[in-house]
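Exercise: predict the fold of this chain.
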Amino acid sequence: MKNTIIFGSKIDFKQGETLTFFLNENLDFKDESKTFSTQTLNKIRVYLKNLKFKKKEEKIISFDISEKNKVLFIILKEKLVSNNFEELGANFYSFIKTNKIDKVNLYADTLKSFKSYNKNTELILNFIHGFNLKSYSFDKYKTQNKNIFYFLLNIISSKKNSLNNNYFRYKAIESGVFQTRDLVSEPPNILYPKKYVEIIKKLSSLGLKIQIYNELKMKKLGMHALLGVGQGSINESFLVTMEWRGNKKSKDKPLAFVGKGVCFDTGGISLKPARFMEEMKYDMAGSAVVVGLLKTLALRKAKVNAVGVVGLVENMPGGNAQRPGDIVKSYSGKTIEVLNTDAEGRLVLSDALSFAEKKFKPKFIIDLATLTGAIIVSLGEEYAGLFSNNDDLSNKIFEVSKKIEEKVWRLPLNENYNKLMDSTVADVQNINYSGGAGSITAAQFLQRFIINKTPWAHLDIAGMAFSKKASNLNPKGATGFGVRLLNKLIEEHYE
């Protein structure tokens, strides 16, 4: 059995299945579907009346109407909001999984009784979207005690055709989010740079133009900042570009998205502590978001031109590893003094950013990276750090983040912070030795490699890419944070 969602127009209440209704806060239930006998209907009404008297606060209520069948009631406030429906769908998935209810019929037309219901299908689609996002699991390497929960969700609605026709947009987003979560979840012995490249290449079947730059090509281009990070590893480094031409008639500049792809980060010679080092397999999460986003755009045939650029490396303390004190020349021509080899992501991004700007001349550049532990100290697991040289771009990202519940918070850039990254022997140093403002000075470093004043935003997602606890639409583990945010930004402002 696989997880299945189907759209139907008739209620078919078989033995062992569960029927679900939306219900207002007053617990007023009318069986407009005429599913139940008068006797069963009276039982349900008495049960709900008792609940109302006891003032129970549950959002989902379960009622056994027979030994084999249940009825579930999803309690809603009168004002219906799309974001709430995504979270409600996620909560509903958690409920049926906890209670091992694997066959559910959801009677969606019960939303019609709400005054604020505007007769479209978006609320139900948001509900299904949240439900699906929460249902993700990564268990491909478990051989025992998998404890996999499979479900069948039948959405019953008079708008069956409309739901079917419009769900593809949400499926495209889910596919992109799941691709990102899969990549972040893979162990580093499986997802090293070359293997990562092979996975990206498969996306060409969706219409993406994929171009791969190996170490030889990058040396010719002068990408010594990126190459320096990977030189201690036996695994080759790569830079990959993914182009989506969804608006071929337009001569508009493309939108550019750049991702840090450090497939494993030991810290290099500036070795990290052993405790929790295993979590550094997700130091490639920024690149995974870019891959997931481009996959989403291709699947939903987005009417936009966009490019993704990812630098894929492994930071290891080998005999040929980069040393603290080394000076490298970046693709931009600027020289960088490497004071700490564990500040490697910004070296990867410096070449990727300058390359994306020069080659594609984009309308804007947004980069994503698990860049600093300092951003977790600042914002925890609630907000990603946002830095930008452009108020308009920054404001758009911030407003969209509130709508999609992938929250960002803007932090300052300032010339006094920028000076902290000046080197005495090179053009720039890769860490701030004065102490403090770790996330800000990292962003100031990146800004130096935006050569032509292209509108740019940096999202530090170190606290958002992976979570040790389940929350909202995310299960425990890789979250896929950023795919939905950037897809919504494109939908609202650039298509």
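Check your answer against the key: Residues 4-158 form a domain with the Leucine Aminopeptidase, subunit E; domain 1 fold (CATH 3.40.220.10).
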